[in-house]
Specification:
Structural class of chain B: alpha/beta
Number of strands of chain A: 1
Distance between the termini of chain A: 49 Å
Helix content of chain B: 10-25%
Shape of chain B: globular
Order of helices and strands of chain B: EHEHEHHEEHEHEEEEHEEEEHEEEHEEEH
Radius of gyration of chain B: 23 Å
Number of strands of chain B: 20
Oligomer: heterodimer
Amino acid sequence: MNRREWLKNMSVLAVGAIAGPSLLAVFDAHAASQKPGTKPQFLNPAQYTLVGAVADIMIPRTDTPGAVDAGVPLFIDQMFFAAYTKEEQTRYVTAMAAFDKAGGKPFLQLDEAQRKALVTKLHTEALAAPKGTTPAPAADFVMMSKKLTMMGFFLSQPGCTQVLQYAPVPGAWHGDIPLKDAGNGKAWAVETSLKI
Amino acid sequence: MEKNTYDAIVVGTGISGGWAAKELTEKGLKTLVLDRGPMVKHGDYPTAMKNPWELPYGDEPTQADIARWPKHTRPSFYGITQSTKHWFADDIDNPYEETKPFDWFRGYHVGGRSLMWGRQSYRLSPMDFEANGKEGVGVDWPIRYEDLAPWYDKVEHFIGVSGNADHLAQLPDGDFLPPMDLNCVEKDFQSKLDGKFNRKLIIGRTANLSAPLKHDQSPQRGTCQYRNLCMRGCPYGGYFSSNSSTLPSAERTGNMTMVTNAIVYELIYDNDKGKATGVRVLDAETGHQTEYFAKVIFMCASTFGTAQILLNSTSTRFPNGFGNDSGELGHNIMDHLFGTGARAMVDGHEDRYYSGRRPNGFYIPRYRNVGTDKQKYLRGFGFQGGAGRQDWTRLVQEQLLGADLKQAAEAPGPWYVSMMGFGEMLPSHKNFVTLDRNHKDKYGLPILNFDAAHQENELMMSKAIIEDAVEMLTAAGYRDVGSFSMKANVGAGIHEMGTARMGRDPKTSVLNGWNQMHACKNVYVTDGSAMASSGCQNPSLTYMALTARAANHAVEELKRGNV
């Protein structure tokens, strides 16, 4: 008997005479009510386009997919829609407005080189902010967007499997091996989280 | 009445209840097993096979989740994620009061917290069973290490514990499956601790199958696949839970009847017989009330679950709670000091890495007040930790964007090492839980109010944990050594115990040396509430051993007609 058959057998073992609904049913109902959206629900179309353009600068398509390919803009929208607080929502939207003014004209009207230059400048400014302080809003937007883009990308399938390496079922643990023998030698995808 | 009558009743299906169910049914008792929550059969783990990208919201809790679990989302806890939140009791429906803040993290479903536990499995040592008596703290344990050793053997053999034989008096070896490897930095730290401090760093002992079990009683259990997603439930049966292990064994005997959504709210006492005759149960879904009867009752509802039921079971014989002649029921709450430690960066070793995700770390067993070491505080602590290579989050603060950022993320980061202390908490009558009869939950049952805090010995030890961690990492030559201290209340260790302690004297304890109530011999309490002291070792293995031993005793006593 293989494993699948075993599990099947186990789950049909009649456990007890009296049984209410299983936790699995409760889980399914709850999961359905919390299914993330497939279209933006927090950002308006203009904001969504801007976030996508910034995410594309953070992690562009190279010989591997980029942030936009990996669905990062929708990830960011859903994080603000469901996971973050009202204060965090306000902080992001306010910072985005400041960012959109920082380049002299609206960000999306800048050419590619100007966009990159602005993001790079504000990124440097954000990194220079003293530890424990929040950078000025435009720079804060760049830093928040960097974190969100990285989170969305490195938890995505392309991020995990094409940029990092991912083993869904490693099957073994080798605690101390040469880097070159650890799969393809790239960093392992891990589950992690970041505070914006 | 007849159809509701069994030989034994087990209240709860977690670490302890699963063992009681298995042992009692295997010894031929027709056993009713009750759980207050819904059924979870082995394999019913809805998120177990999900990849990171299949979990919404980066696996973080939503605002709706935080509103539903205001206590379970406190900083000391990590369980409310999209992949594991369904295992935790809803704080809105299951309130408790905090005269002093208390972190109470609960799972109300079949298997209880055996599904989500940390799996670290350590024996208490002879020193731990002797300490109370020698130091005049709390009450002397009515048993010694030798009484429990064969039961530790039995439990380890059955559940499968991966570990190394380390020959340490303060941490007895057991019947182990092969140890998991340390990585290169952990080995480096091990040799430096040994050389500079004569302290041992060992691989954690964990209830994950590093090799097949040495018996054929659990065919549903496969070896660990090194996914490190244990908390979601393991469809491979790679770690021990009641669902994957003890309950299937109980089921196979044909002697178990399980009733779920069955909230036991009271034990029934018969004055004439001088015994408990059964339990009163409320159906969590319908509110329907039922009485079940048995010759012997095992309370395994978890430390505070059991305390709540016993405190709620009043009668002319037990006006202050069932079995509470001593006034100690609900008192002597213990947990482990939790949430403080230190971390550091480690240079070099760039050509070494690991593969697989080890569901385990290293352990530095207690060395304080051991042998010739003497401290101003009593008892001691151990450290649990691990080393690894930093992930992509390190690049947030780097001057990297675009293709450069992507490329940098491909390489494993520098090595770090991190460790956290688990410290022993002394039993004190001043740390207690009471039943607030003026405040009821949605079932109409009075809720618990916690009044427990760390006292002088714990505060001294907390400071020592940080100092020692920093000292060891610094002496090892690591850089950027920094301590951490998260906001953690009593309870944050999720090692709560002590509310119905064992002891020799009925005047000062609730249970005797067989986990039997002094005042009512056919009631056994074998969850964490039985503990007379906490040690600093993760306690679940001890609950299992105590339960197996008590179940054996109960069956013998039934045969002799003594209960």
